[in-house]
Amino acid sequence: MSRGYSSGHAGRYICQMRQRPLFLQKYPLVWGGLFLLLLAAGGCQKPLTFKESGNIGFSADSVRFDTLFTGQLSPSRRLYLYNRSGHALRIRSLSIGGGEGSDFRLIADGVQAQAHQDLELASGDSLYLFFSIRKTVNQNTDVTDVLRVETEGRVDEVVLHAHILHAYLIRDSIMDCNTLLPTDKPVVVDGILRVDEGCTLTIPAGARLYFTARQNNRFDFESQVQVLGRLLVEGTAANPVLFSSFRLGSTFGMPWQEEAGQWGGLHFTQFSQGSVIRHALIRNASIGVQVDSISLAPPEPKLTLDRVELRNFSNFAILGLGAAPAVPGGAPNILASNVLAYNAGQSVVGLYFGGSYQFTNCTFADFNQVSNSGNQPAVAISNYLAFQNENGANQAFDYPTEAVFQNCIIWGSQENEFATDFRNYGGASPVLGFFHTLLKAQVFDTGNTTNFFNQDPFFRDIFNRDYRLQSISPAIGKANATLSPPQDLRDTPRDAQPDLGALEFVPD
User: Fold this and answer.
1) What is the band of 233 on the pLDDT scale with cuts at 50, 70, 90?
2) Are 270 and 292 in contact (CB under 8 A)?
3) 8 pLDDT above the threshold of 70
4) Topology of 56-163 in CATH?
């Protein structure tokens, strides 16, 4: 990007000097070296002469935005303008066709304005242009305008286009008790959508929730669902409920909706009770679902996950934080069946500080497809909390821990996709139960002979998110029919000898 500067400026400065500074007179070798250096950089050149006419080019023939939501500022789009004239060129005018009344905004040469005059480009130089748009609409609308570039005897235009979706906007809201979310339009959540204690939010089948990427000054995502009461998600196989980031479209062929870590996730606090998520897709958050503390309402689970897919998270797909004494006769923190969860920057399932969990016919997989994936296993469990108190003294507690995996698949690209970190600080010993489960892990004693270690389940196509089983999979026909739900994740009926994992094998 240039306004006519060239390396010749340095040379012209040397040529125009009438008197050498005193220290250069005293040290002539320094003066001579400096002269030669600057002369090599630009020489004694004449000032650039800018002509009014010439050829220009663009990096694209149009500027098109991803589908956007009403009232939301778009990400910027970039366009290069090239001087292809073979000489220095002065652009008389560069402007948005609709002027100040346009919904598009233009930044040229680092300056935001709808019109720019007398921009100068050296031969072969280029200019960066940035565009954005924000528009509020009452119905789905296509918005168009043009970028107009005027040189002597010539006007070039580039089309600007955006498709704006009408949507409901929820911004930093505490929902009214017993609210039923609408489904006729998408819902954009900007900030916290909060369900208060003693209240229920119901999200019916077909609802689509899109969350902005708003962050606080600690760079934590603020857009999330925060549940202090009860959340009921009532999707169906034909009309699942969607929780996703609000950025649509793609970049370099990768859909933005599959990029991990773009919003906060669903957070079930220590006060929440009896939430149910059924037939839902949750994707590309920091944490898919986070559940705090053991259920306070026995025998009701704090969260039930039933036929849910979770994918692409910068931290966890499922995070359970026990940190509470066991409740006699209490239900699990998380009761999950027919759950498919995969691709997380840390663990797909992280269960820390104890707690009670039960997973049936679930598939948990991680193939390091998230950019910040480390060497953490797909499933990780610990039973303790260690910290320094306000006086700087070390303290540690262990908590009751129970986790049951039945008819599940735990798999991934590492040698060990299941790991525990248990400590004894005087509490009860952790209890793990594995029944008819396939694990990729160092072989350990599960207390029964129904489990399978390190046998590839042969998913069909992990790169295209197809976690159905191939016909050669050792997971076919190995589930306990008594434990299995009658249908799988997609509501496909399970046969008399069902399969491990969330998806029942169906021959092509």
Assistant:
1) very high
2) yes
3) no
4) Immunoglobulin-like (2.60.40)
The whole-angstrom separation of Cα 218 and Cα 259 is 21
Q: pLDDT tens digits for 275-320?
A: 999 999 999 999 999 999 866 666 789 999 999 999 999 999 999 9
Distance of alpha carbon 485 from alpha carbon 308, whole angstroms: 14
Read off the tokens for 494.
């399970």
> Residue 229 corresponds to which tokens in the numbers above?
């009461």
Residue 198: Cβ-neighbour burial (10 angstroms; 0-12, 13-18, 19+): exposed
Percent of the chain with pLDDT over 70: 84
pTM: predicted TM-score of the whole model, two decimal places:
0.77
Band (87; pLDDT cuts 50, 70, 90): confident
3-state helix, strand, coil in the chain (%, to 5): 5, 45, 50
Concatenated DSSP letters for 223-250?
-EEEESSEEEEE--SSS-EEEEES--SE
Taking the C-alpha atoms of 99, 104, 108 and 114 in order, what is their torsion angle to the nearest 10 degrees?
20
Q: Which residues contact 109 (CB under 8 A, 6 or more apart)?
A: 1, 3, 116, 119, 127, 128
Whether residue 357 contacts residue 404, with contact meaning beta carbons closer than 8 Å, is answered with yes
Neighbour-count burial of 161, counting CB atoms closer than 10 A to its CB (0-12 exposed, 13-18 middle, 19+ buried) = middle
Ordered by start, the domain boundaries in the chain are 8-41, 56-163, 168-469
Does position 43 have pLDDT exceeding 70, yes or no? no
